[in-house]
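User: These chains co-purify. Model them together.
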Amino acid sequence: MRQTKGQRIFGVFNVIFMILLCIVIIYPILNLFAQSVSDDLYLLRGDVTFYPIGFSLDAYAKFFNSSYVMRAFINSVFVAGVGCLTSLTMTLLAAYPIAFGRFSGKKIYTVIVFFPMWFVAGMIPEYLVVQKMGLLNSFASLILIALVAPYHVIILSTFLKSIPISLHESARIDGANELTILIRIVLPLAKAAMATIALWVIVGHWNDYFKPLMYLTDFEKYTFQLALKDIVLSADAAGIYGIGGLEGYGLSLRLKSAMLIFSMLPMLILYPFLQQYFVKGVMIGSIKG
Amino acid sequence: MTRQLHPESTSWQRSVKKYCRRLWADRYMYLIILPVLVYFALFKYWPMLWLRVSFYDYKVLKGFDGSKFVGLKYLEKFLSSPDFWVILGNTIVLNLYCLAFVFPVPILFALLLNELRPGRFKKFTQTISYLPYFISTIAFASMIITFLSPNEGTLAVIFRMFGKEPIYFMGDAKYFRPIVVISGIWQLMGWNAIVYLSALTAIDPQLYEAAVIDGAGRWKQTWHVTLPSIRTTIVIMLILQIGKLMNVNFEKVYLLQNTANLSASEVIQTYVYKQGIVNFNYSYGSMIGMFNSVVSLLLVAGANAVSRKISEVSLW
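Assistant: Joint model of the two components:
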């Protein structure tokens, strides 16, 4: 198709606009990184923009040596890891009957699973239930509350429905029971959707701030986001390390930026590999609509 | 009587037997849904029963037996409190702002992205645009606060460059909503565009060819082919958004809240948290939360019904 002059001009402007947009999006993150490794002098003068001036990793070293931050990091890895495995198992168990089941009671079952998407009991009753079960101040509370999300069940069951049913039928004729079919046939075919959900669950746990704030009371059990909040939203982060004055001010800035970069690091590292799955997952979800 | 019933009861027995046999044949399926049902009972439906605390002067140590039943006292308290209209107003206005600005931008972005030639640049732009979605709320809130800080913030630097006195944006309630909306666009534009992009790729190219033959230019193609084709997706997203009208991005609002902007930033969920968890007034917090959930359910059902009538698009 030949382009008119107007279209070509539009095309050029569109590209320029997109480049500007990319800069606007990426600048705050680059700026954080630059701040986290720059010299105090330039930092305090406000000279640091896209790239670091001077170079020092001592802000990172500070919290690598801090047992509080590292323990919080390990706690978060634990919660995200265990949470991911258990969530995947339960979501698969929840989605499989909706996709393939023809048992009596399926309609009721479907309503039971999807109703909580439209009506939630809310923060307080959830808190009271966790309290009643004696799960306050435990990682189990964080994992269990987020174990199965109805939205994830929709995504997975929509995906499973796209698996040709004949495969499933022939396995059933061969005498395999539902559990065998689920593990041997469906699970390997559902890898892409499972990966999507795994990543959502991991991101959810990793970035979660409010549940840990509500449910955890021991410093020892604090997750990374809580530690992050302690450092980045306190006015004087360097004060924690007993460094004050102008030196402390510069270090505070660097510590905050370093901690923010560190908090994004797992996602930034995984991101290029996982991006396609995220996108695929959202697309599966949109097919439903 | 009994003699009359006899033949019927055997057929009844037979159908029970048949039914049991069917249940038994599906036993593995029931085994699969059992843990799911237990989980949903404990963590999704049991909390709903706990909404009962809304109707009591609930004392944790005494349980329901020792607590006084007060009916709708807390609903009345909420509705008649001077905070009610402020909080409700803040919640709804903030959401309408988001509906007006954060909602349409991803559609525009998807349309513009769709105009780019497929290739590395398009992919790169997409990748960059999803990135902000993965930043945690804490990190994001702190980035916003630093960015807007009158001392070291980027915006202050720009202000000074033009010889203007930097403004303390976080310290003024009138800037709160623009801050939430603009940062919301920054964080969600790319991510929310994915759905529309996938809808755009599903459009039959023949439609465009036909439009070109009919003499339609780029604008007319967009207006008459592209937009109608992704209409269903837009409507669905809109219904879902309306269902969230009473729910703000709670963590973000809470973290951006300070005493100076409270008059614009106190919303229903932050109020629930403060009343319920911080002040230990479980009953009051629970009642407000329930009020919120019921209104949300009505809103999404209403939006769905209206949409089904007008555009024949609906969630269920």
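The longest helix of chain A spans residues 245-288.
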